[in-house]
Specification:
The chain is of the alpha+beta class. It has 3 domains: 52 residues, no CATH class; 81 residues, Signal recognition particle alu RNA binding heterodimer, srp9/1 (2-Layer Sandwich), CATH 3.30.720; 146 residues, no CATH class. It is built from 7 helices and 15 strands. The strands form 4 sheets. It has a 5-stranded mixed β-sheet, covered by helices on one side. α2 runs parallel beside α7 and α4 packs antiparallel against α6.
């Protein structure tokens, strides 16, 4: 073309034609040489983009394969969902995080064996264990220093969780029994009534000055205050060294017995109270292991502690 003799309109049209020919998109199939699987790609200029097969989903009579993650709100529902869709190669992964424990079932997991066919692993079911309100309340307050008033209020709010042992009838696990024996025997375990007496005594003496705080050979402590009253009966305040609670680890789960060691410190005429839960890690691990064993038995699938491939 002789651009010197071309009018402005003809020149613009020619440039447009060149641009359109250059950027024109072509759609054509490409084949994977390893599997002979064909896919559609779009070529525009020098770039090639694969065509997402999802755009054809509205025209299909059925999905090409199952995918998606179902969120279960109970362990029963997870087991039922897994049993509905599992096959011989489905697996369950368990995350034993003590703050956010969970289970993930990969229903279309890779076929078993190094030479077996791989699968997408996109059809899943998950369950996040809900920690019980009792477990969260005691765990949050564990080892937290409190004033007498704060500690008394906490005891009164959670007194229903405190365990009452019947002498001669109730037995303790071996490791817990050793702890009790080390601290002075069964008489060192405070009953719910004893803790309520302690809470009331702390409320009475909230503004009093600590005169003396000593530990007795029995494992208890005795606190005397510089005030008209000590506890509601006017006697020195006795502080037990240990009490037991019975709480579930997971919501609606079975109760587990935990020991709480009662601590206090006198400083500048004031008392600071706290408690230390004993071996909560073992209790959590036991409760979690029991749940995993139930999943193994009721789904007949392997359970791996860990996380599936992303």
């Amino acid at each position: 073309m002789d651009y010197a003799t071309t009018s402005g309109g003809e020149f613009v049209q020619h440039v447009r034609t060149l641009v359109e020919d250059y950027v024109k998109a072509d759609v054509y199939p490409v084949k994977d040489p390893a599997s002979d699987v064909e896919a559609l790609v779009v070529q525009s200029g020098n770039s090639v983009t694969p065509l997402d097969p999802k755009i054809f989903d509205p025209y299909r009579a059925a999905p090409r394969f199952r995918h998606g993650t179902a969120v279960m709100l109970s362990l029963d529902s997870l087991i039922a969902h897994v049993n509905r869709f599992k096959d011989t190669d489905s697996v369950v992964f368990a995350n034993d995080d003590r703050v956010k424990p969970s289970l993930t079932a990969v229903l279309d997991y890779h076929r078993d064996g190094a030479e077996a066919d791989p699968r997408f692993g996109k059809h899943r079911s998950i369950f996040e264990f809900p920690l019980s309100d009792e477990w969260k309340a005691w765990a949050q307050a564990n080892d937290e220093k409190m004033t007498m008033a704060e500690f008394a209020a906490f005891l009164e709010n959670r007194i229903i969780d405190v365990l009452y042992l019947i002498p001669g009838e109730d037995t303790l696990p071996e490791d817990l029994q050793r702890l009790v024996d080390t601290l002075g025997g069964p008489e060192t375990i405070a009953t719910p009534n004893k803790l309520m007496e302690l809470a009331r005594g702390l409320q009475v003496n909230d503004e009093a000055i600590v005169q003396e705080a000593v530990n007795l050979s029995s494992g208890e402590g005795v606190v005397r205050f510089q005030a008209r009253h000590t506890d509601e009966h006017g006697a020195p305040l006795k502080v037990p060294s240990l009490f037991l609670i019975a709480i579930p680890v997971f919501r609606n789960g079975p109760l587990y017995r935990l020991a709480a060691r009662l601590r206090y410190r006198a400083a500048q005429g004031r008392l600071t109270f706290w408690f230390e839960l004993w071996r909560t890690d073992r209790t959590f691990d036991h409760a979690f292991s029991e749940s995993l064993e139930r999943v193994r038995v009721e789904t007949a699938l392997p359970v791996f502690v860990g996380k599936p491939e992303a």
